[in-house]
């Protein structure tokens, strides 16, 4: 009997390049999950991209809801209706409340464009330049009520170059993200990565630091695709 693949719901607000990388990884078999739905909280450009990839989409316009609790409840209802077993936030620009986060604890992950715990919040590339950091990158973490503060699963990093600007860093970090995020989604889908209290388990053993993705220029594929 063929085991049923876990269903992944992806939640976006913007252009959806990480979403597309995850979808493509699932479609080529590199990520052992099926994409149940892509949901946006606004008229995000990524919705058309998802549809072009053959994925069911929904828009839940946040501004039409009285408050965060009401929006969060609608988002949870849609994710459950589409049977999402786990959820990837991919450029989702809203803060989710503690009830939502608690409901999906251990099944809700996010990608953040910095080497957490450094540079939480917005404008991370400018933060890196202002701090004079030698390295930068992206982190995938379990979502907890602590914004950008949940246990980090894995990171991919790069060296900041003298000529780098916020925009060049953004482009370079995104290349890393498009390889890192599908990979981590695969680990969560297969159960290799789990949240145990405040610890991340990998193959049943606690991580004392995030996994460092061994992405090097030599192993990169054109366009950052994983397959
Ligand atoms: C990514 O850089 C991600 O780290 C951050 O938002 C950006 C989303 O980009 N959370 P995209 O919509 O996936 O292209």
Can you offer a commentary on this structure?
- The protein is of the alpha/beta class and 227 residues long.
- The protein has a single domain, classed as Formyl transferase, N-terminal domain (Rossmann fold).
- Helices cover 32% and strands 23% of the residues.
- The protein has six helices and eleven strands.
- The strands form two sheets. The chain has an eight-stranded mixed beta sheet, sandwiched between helices. Strands 8-9-10 form a three-stranded antiparallel beta sheet.
- Helix 1 packs parallel to helix 6 and helix 5 crosses helix 6.
- The two termini are 26 Å apart.
- Bound molecules: 5-O-phosphono-beta-D-ribofuranosylamine.
- The site of 5-O-phosphono-beta-D-ribofuranosylamine has 16 residues, from helix 1, strand 5 and helix 6.
- 5-O-phosphono-beta-D-ribofuranosylamine binds next to helix 1, strand 5 and helix 6.
Distance between the termini: 26 Å
Report the structural category.
alpha/beta
Task: Indicate the radius of gyration in whole angstroms.
Answer: 17 Å
Strand content: 15-25%
User: Into how many domains do the coordinates divide?
Assistant: 1
Could you give a short account of the major beta sheet?
Answer: 8 strands, mixed
H/E element order: EHEHEHEHEHEEHEEEE
Number of strands: 11
What is the mean predicted local confidence, pLDDT? 94
Q: Which hetero compounds are present in the coordinates?
A: 5-O-phosphono-beta-D-ribofuranosylamine
